Amino acid sequence: MNNLVWRNIYRLILLVLFQLLVLNNLYLGGYVMPMLYVLFILMLPTGMKRIPLLLIAFCLGLLMDIMSNVLGFHSLACTILAMMRIWFADRILTRGEPVVINTPSIRSVTPQYFVSYLLLMYSAFYLIFYTAEIFSNRGLGGVLLATLCSTLVSTILAVIYQLIFQKKKEDL
Fold first, then answer.
1. pTM above 0.90, yes or no
2. Rounded CA separation 82/124 (Å)
3. Block mean pLDDT (10 aa), the chain, length 172
4. Which SS3 state, helix, strand or coil, does residue 1 take?
């Protein structure tokens, strides 16, 4: 396998373990639930075919559902996020140009575009996630507040992850 595949496998293992061992055990007031593992889907190559991307997202969400003992919220939100990513990655990261970015990151793309991409995609993910959960115990105000708080915290964590673990632009 080539180097890009190995880097993605390493990233997947690192993000899932950090999510399961650290972030899932944090309690931040009930309205903040950082989900850094979603960054794996957002950092897959922009030229990736639709079916493999959707399958990877669904399997990752299913893994998180099983490990977090949740009723399918992660797999639903991850699959819809992957569908949205196909369109938004093309519009925001490559700005419609026929360019494939192997690892979309804050160092491989203009930082403000990447942060905008993160904010938009995390907002969509959390809105889907918390809306699916709305039938359990939250009202609309709770869903919107949890979406806003979780999006901000997850975006900050994603940027910190990017700055620590991503190589410089020329090395990508």
1. no
2. 11
3. 85 94 84 92 90 96 92 93 88 73 85 90 94 73 88 94 75 42
4. coil
Return the number of other C-beta atoms located less than 10 Å from residue 172's C-beta: 15
Q: Which DSSP state fits 159?
A: H
Closest-CA residue to 11 (of 167, 120, 150): 167
| Domain region containing 145 | 3-23+31-171
Q: How far apart are CA 156 and CA 9, in angstroms?
A: 23
Residues 6 or more apart in contact with residue 105 via CB below 8 angstroms: 43, 114, 162, 166, 172
Based on the structure, what is the number of domains in the chain?
1
Q: State the alpha helices, DSSP H only, in the chain.
A: 3-21, 38-42, 50-68, 73-88, 111-133, 140-165
CA dihedral over 39, 44, 47, 52, signed as positive or negative = negative
